[in-house]
């Protein structure tokens, strides 16, 4: 029994080494988040749930950090108002490409990237400006700081539209914080192709907190492309708060909404709102 | 005698018909030789085939009931692809959804050719098990790039991973992906296929793929079956398995217990070794993490659209 004992110990030892290495392997490979894995698939999701009225009504925003000889870092980040911020640990002293993609209904609608070489043990900042991959209707400026009882003009703007002939959107705001005092058209862009503008609706409802804008270009063959202003909305801040103004262009919920081309085809589009920081005087 | 009977005249007519047919046959045989431009008609058909988009996929036939199910393809076309769609065969009416292009992945290989005899691995690791060796010149469809490995499907249906360096890319394309939400995977089975349409309207689609969604219990059963069916009904056999334990404890002589006591018994207990291994691994993990921290930097990312 005693002669066999060293063999027993050796066998146990080998077994433990196997367990040890499998444990180490697990501890090294196990992801801290479900998304961060060496598999290079990004999952955009088809969301069935109704979107709320945030300034950025995107389904997801995916941050991807890549570089030479590093495992890609992939994580979901979220917009707070019209900006998204994240702080994370990355390999130092290497040229990193930081890319962000915004998805709506599983389609990439926003994309931006930048490179950075973070020094070891220090903090580095990287700013990413997102480009519009699909026609976009947005409120500009994306965020503003105003004083209570002051007025602010926000512009309804089109970005990357292609032969747009009709445009319809709903602007949602919190009527307890903001009131619309004036609506104005910005005709220069829509008349850019020598067409005239048909104003089918451009109204406000300060009790519901809605502005509805439905404008068309006549004839439809004078449809416009590119980026420009469509209209302006003058808000009065009646309460100090931080509030989001959102844009709805979802044609499924309201057939007036959406962007249509000169052949009356609905264009896939996205609406991006604005955030106001209202301070006390 | 001179006048031919009706039957003979009919025979003569038949003879004339045979001759006509022979002439026609010769004419059709000689036609392609006489008019060579008609010759390339056949290769033209193969060019048309090449114009249709290529979709490369490595479908997972099993999914988790109520879990997310990701679908990913590599697709390319001679013309730029207009859309890659997922078509779910949901009841009578198929549901169509656009698959999003993974822009950040840039150009990805869709079809490659092996440049030399290359091993087909089970996983994307050089030390992974080799399934088979693929001959040089084998054309493979690539559905994913993991590190420096391609996830491939051969024309003969062999699936696995090969080293990127052993191939030359024949067709480059783009990666597309979509993930089905939990609400759509709460069913036992789902059929789908992928469609790709290019700018010229050329369309191609994969075969119908059937996915089975398994519940946690079904997965456990399946795993148990794979291991030999022993753990098929774990909760039920728990009570039964307690019995022999008691029996063993009662039947084992006390002397043996004392004999194996002391330092020797501890070394013989697998739990002790496993515990030591876990503790060692934990220590190694903590120490190695410290080293890693020294090579890390903090990155603040700010994202905005205008």
Question: What does this protein structure show overall?
Answer:
- The complex is a heterodimer of chains A (281) and B (306).
- Chain A is mainly beta and 281 residues long.
- Chain A folds into two domains: 2-132, Immunoglobulin-like (Sandwich), CATH 2.60.40; 136-279, Immunoglobulin-like.
- Chain A has helices spanning 5-29, 187-190; strands at 60-67, 73-77, 83-91, 96-104, 107-116, 123-129, 131-132, 136-140, 143-147, 151-172, 178-185, 196-205, 210-218, 224-237, 241-248, 258-261, 266-267, 270-272, 274-279.
- In chain A, strands 8, 9, 10, 11, 12, 13, 14, 15, 16, 17, 18 and 19 form a twelve-stranded mixed sheet that branches.
- In chain A, a hairpin with a 2-residue loop joins strand 4 (96-104) and strand 5 (107-116).
- The model of chain A is unreliable at 27-52 (pLDDT under 50).
- Chain B has seven helices and 17 strands.
- By secondary structure, chain B is of the alpha+beta class.
- Chain B is elongated, with a radius of gyration of 34 Å.
- Residues 37-49 and 229-263 of chain B have low confidence and may be disordered.
- In chain B, strands 1, 3, 6, 7, 10, 11, 12 and 13 form an eight-stranded antiparallel sheet that branches. In chain B, strands 2, 4, 5, 14, 15 and 16 form a six-stranded mixed sheet that branches. Chain B has a two-stranded antiparallel sheet with strand order 8-9.
- The interface between A and B is large, with 80 and 54 residues.
Notable characteristics:
heterodimer; A: 281 residues; mainly beta; Immunoglobulin-like; 2 domains; twelve-stranded mixed β-sheet; 2 helices; 19 strands; 10% helix; elongated; B: 306 residues; alpha+beta; six-stranded mixed β-sheet; 7 helices; 17 strands; 35% helix
């Amino acid at each position: 029994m005693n002669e066999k004992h060293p063999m027993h110990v050796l066998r146990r030892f080998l077994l433990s080494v196997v367990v040890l290495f499998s444990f180490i392997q697990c501890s090294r490979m196990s992801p801290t988040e479900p998304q961060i894995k060496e598999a290079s698939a990004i999952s955009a999701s088809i969301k069935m749930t109704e979107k709320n009225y945030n300034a950025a009504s995107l389904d997801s925003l995916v941050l991807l950090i890549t570089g030479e000889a590093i495992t890609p870092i992939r994580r979901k980040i979220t917009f707070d108002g019209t900006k998204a911020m994240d702080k994370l640990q990355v390999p130092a002293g290497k040229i990193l490409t930081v890319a962000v993609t915004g998805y709506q209904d599983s389609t990439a609608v926003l994309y931006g990237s930048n490179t950075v070489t973070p020094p070891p043990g220090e903090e580095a900042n990287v700013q990413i400006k997102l480009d519009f991959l699909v026609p976009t209707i947005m409120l500009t400026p994306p965020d503003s700081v105003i004083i209570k009882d002051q007025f602010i003009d926000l512009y309804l703007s089109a970005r990357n539209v292609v032969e747009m002939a009709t445009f319809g959107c709903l602007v949602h705001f919190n009527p307890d914080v903001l009131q619309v005092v004036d609506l104005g058209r910005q005709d220069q862009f829509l008349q850019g192709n020598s067409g005239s503008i048909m104003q089918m609706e451009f109204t406000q409802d300060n009790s519901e907190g809605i502005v509805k804008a439905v404008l068309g270009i006549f004839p439809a063959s004078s449809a416009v492309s590119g980026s420009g202003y469509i209209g302006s909305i003058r808000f009065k801040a009646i309460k100090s708060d931080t509030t989001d103004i959102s844009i709805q262009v979802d044609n499924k919920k309201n057939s007036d909404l959406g962007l249509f081309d000169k052949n009356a085809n609905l264009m896939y589009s996205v609406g991006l709102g604005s955030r106001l920081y209202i301070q006390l005087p | 005698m001179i006048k031919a009977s009706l039957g003979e005249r009919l025979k003569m007519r038949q003879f004339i018909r045979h001759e006509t047919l022979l002439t026609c046959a010769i004419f059709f045989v000689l036609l392609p030789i006489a008019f060579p431009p008609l010759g390339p008609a056949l290769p033209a058909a193969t060019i048309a085939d090449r114009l249709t988009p290529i979709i490369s996929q490595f479908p997972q036939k099993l999914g988790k009931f109520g879990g997310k199910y990701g679908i990913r393809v590599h697709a390319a076309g001679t013309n730029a692809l207009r859309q890659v769609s997922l078509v779910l065969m949901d009841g009578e009416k198929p549901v169509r959804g656009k698959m999003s292009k993974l822009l950040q992945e840039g150009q990805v290989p869709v079809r490659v050719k092996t440049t030399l005899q290359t091993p087909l691995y089970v996983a994307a690791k050089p030390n992974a098990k080799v399934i088979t060796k693929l001959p040089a010149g084998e054309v493979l469809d690539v559905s994913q790039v993991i590190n420096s490995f391609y996830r491939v499907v051969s024309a003969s249906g062999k699936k696995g991973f090969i080293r990127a360096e052993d191939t030359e890319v024949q067709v480059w394309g783009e990666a597309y992906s979509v993930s089905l939400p939990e609400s759509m995977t709460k069913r036992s089975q789902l059929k789908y296929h992928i469609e790709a349409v290019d700018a010229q309207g050329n369309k191609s689609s994969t075969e119908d793929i059937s996915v089975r969604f398994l519940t946690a219990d079904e997965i456990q059963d399946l795993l148990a079956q794979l291991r030999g069916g022993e753990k098929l009904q774990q909760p039920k056999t728990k009570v039964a398995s307690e019995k022999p334990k008691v029996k063993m404890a009662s039947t084992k002589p006390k002397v043996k217990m004392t004999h194996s006591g002391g330092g020797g018994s501890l070394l013989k207990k697998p739990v002790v070794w496993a515990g030591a291994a876990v503790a060692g691994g934990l220590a190694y993990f903590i120490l190695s993490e410290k080293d890693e921290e020294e090579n890390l930097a903090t990155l603040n990312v700010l994202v905005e659209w205008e």
